[in-house]
Amino acid sequence: MLSGCTGNVMPAASLEDLKNIPDYNYIIGPGDNVNIFVWRNPEVSQSVPVRPDGKITTPLVEDLQASGKTPTELARKIEEVLGIYIKDPSVTVIVTGFVGPYDQQVRVVGEAAQPKALPFRENMTLLDLMVSVGGLTEFAAGNKSILVRRVNGREMQYRVRIDDLIDKGDISANVHILPGDIMIVPESWF
Predict the structure, then answer these.
(1) What domain count does the chain have?
(2) What is the pLDDT along the chain (190 residues), one digit of tens a residue?
(3) Residue 120 sits in which domain range?
(4) Cβ contacts of residue 176 below 8 Å, gap of 6+?
(5) Whole-angstrom Cα distance, residue 168 to residue 153?
(6) Is residue 160 a part of any domain in this protein?
(7) Cα angle, residue 54 at apex, residues 51 and 56 outer, rounded to 5°
């Protein structure tokens, strides 16, 4: 198992060390778009965005908290509210625009070709992340990159070898990415 940083020494991240990933269920977040289908009730079925405050509004359902829930949890909550107006409503929630809550997004900062925040995808790896951000700039020090991750409530930092993975094809440098990870790619100092 990987240990945390002490002093200036950071453990190297490896695919084997980081493969014990817990089961992942998508959590709805601000900016997501959700399709709400109410069986036999098309007049209350709609596609709605999740507002910046994490809530949604649909016919008969006002200001319902959606952020932080799985699609199934949100469907059950909508059924509960609609049950006041509709006998035994059956609701399905389908997420169509994926952003996810901020603490579940993966961020790449520094010398990536296109630094950005991305929604986490199950089984995401460092290689997937690099493809999503267009690789590194010519000034990047890829093998000095740092993966910042929260582990049991503590912030941990791990060394990653992006140059070895991309330039040399060293698949042992590929690591799993988890929700909330931050990849910091520093600039090289020639």
Answers:
(1) 2
(2) 333 444 445 667 655 555 555 678 899 999 999 999 999 999 999 999 999 999 999 999 999 999 999 999 999 999 999 999 999 999 999 999 889 998 999 999 999 999 999 999 989 999 999 999 999 999 999 999 999 998 888 999 999 999 999 999 999 999 999 999 999 999 998 6
(3) 102-185
(4) 15, 18, 19, 21, 123, 124, 125, 126
(5) 35
(6) yes
(7) 60
